[in-house]
Amino acid sequence: MSEFDFDPWSLEPYGGLWILLMSVVLMVIAAALSRMRSLGLEKDMAIASIRGGIQIMAMGFLLYALFGLGDLLLWTVVIAFIAVMVVVGTYTSARRAKGLPDPTRATFPALGLATVVTLGTMLGLQVLPLRAEFVIPIAGMVVGNSMNATSLSLNRLLAETRGFRSRIEARMLLGADAETSLKPHVRSAVRSSLIPTIDTLKTLGIVFIPGGMTGMLMGGVDPIWAAQYQLVIFFMIFCSGTIATVVATALATKQLTKDGVTLVDLPDEE
Amino acid sequence: MTKGHVHKLEISDLSLELDGRTILDGISLDIHHGETVCILGGSGAGKSMLLRTIVRLHEPTKGRILLDGEPVTAMDPSTLRRRVSLVQQSPAMLEGTVEDNLRFGLELAGIEPGVIKERIDASLKAAALDEGFLGRRAEKLSGGERQRVAIARAHTLCPEVFLLDEPTAALDPRRMMEVERAIKGLKGDANFMMIIVTHDVEQARRLGDRTVLMRRGRIIAEGDSGSLIEDLDPEERALYMGELVYMEHEHKEGDLNE
Ligand SMILES: Nc1ncnc2c1ncn2[C@@H]1O[C@H](COP(=O)(O)OP(=O)(O)O)[C@@H](O)[C@H]1O
Ligand SMILES: [Mg+2]
Fold first, then answer.
1. Would you give the DSSP letter of residue B190?
2. What is the ipTM of this complex?
3. Which residues line ion ligand 2, judged by CB < 5 Å?
4. What does the pLDDT look like over B189-241, one tens digit per residue?
5. Three-state DSSP class for B207?
6. CATH classification code of B8-91+161-253
7. How many angstroms separate the alpha carbon of residue B198 from the centre of ligand 2?
8. What's the whole-model pTM score?
9. Strand partners, A263
10. Where are the alpha helices (DSSP H) in chain B?
């Protein structure tokens, strides 16, 4: 590995600026294909690349500055960082739950609890070291995946509540309370949102080597330890996804039923 | 098998507003034990919403609904819906077989397994269905069969009041007679109180003791099922008959949406 110097400002082959410039080739190929097949994606691709590029670079600079800070300040910033992730996730998921009277009241507790519980236990059990360069990226993966799972589950729950309204009411009319009447739909919402994670876990190491592990391998870490850590990360993702979707759908269920008596009217899907 | 019965259902000055629109407007109606009241009215008159409000699928904006003097809004919704059973317009089947549909309410109510079987048999009979239906997938049944399964399903809980919303809409005459037979079966089997929403004057005459005519959320006439329509002044009558024709069109096209 020593032939690479990992200098971010180097324009020599394998240097930071060099790899950025050269890899644009790939986006150019994608854009050219899009043009040839009239997919109309070129503009979106360009915007997404620039936007994503700026964001990830900003994150890089921020972390660079962060790792140089003193302890107290460092942890204040780390916690603020995770809080921002949770808040952004809260609003992103809430947008997928339009129609709920108060979507952030479901997504915030879901993401907050999922993040605190999984990070907390792993820190407490001395699996995750109390070091910013571990905590921040892993928190990012936990929040990001919980956010996706939460969005999927709420979206599905609302779609089913719309689509199966008369069946849900039929259960209520047979003496089931509102929560029991929604239960089969809550179940399918949670299950369907966790299936992608389960499938990823099943094919781990065969179909793909996840980004985190790729990074560790490139950083020169012992591949066995990298594999062990990757598994830990997946367990965290799985656990936080389950907590987040269970909490989000439970809180959404409360909002979908007025005092457990009637089902709220959902506006039509746009 | 009935637990007791309601002596009187009292609806007084009931109004319902949704999204700023008046859906029900000062409905007052008293129904007594053993009576069957039919509600006639054009499409959009508020007939379904009235039945739905009685079982608290909507919360009234104004007015009261009393079951033997007790406001339904003070009752536990599950208890209320077991005592007052609504069979919705084009009722939805639950997942699984007809038997699953009939079991659902009984198991929730914590009825013993031995009794469940008895109740299911009795309810099948009441709804003019034979045992062969039990294993059929509910969602695959025809409109008339679904309607009878829904009636049987409601019957399992031995309700004291039956609310039937257009039980024979969109059925051909033979299926209609089958469902009517099921309804008569209910009446014979116990001394229910029943409200039947229909758009068929003849059906109201066949099934109802009393008929109420609704338009735009209000009750505009009330009287003997045999003579109500004839007793209306000619203008009202023409208007009502006109609405019926309009409504029947709606039903042919719109029934699957419900
Ligand atoms: N969930 C709802 N929210 C708002 N308005 C409704 C809702 N359901 C029905 N309505 C309106 O209430 C009125 C009465 O409807 P309904 O009781 O279904 O009429 P019908 O007499 O044909 O059964 C109609 O104007 C209908 O558009
Ligand atoms: Mg109706």
1. S
2. 0.88
3. B 48, 89
4. 556 799 999 888 888 888 888 999 998 999 988 888 777 777 777 666 666 66
5. helix
6. 3.40.50.300
7. 9
8. 0.84
9. A257
10. 47-54, 77-83, 98-108, 113-126, 143-155, 173-189, 201-207, 228-231, 234-254
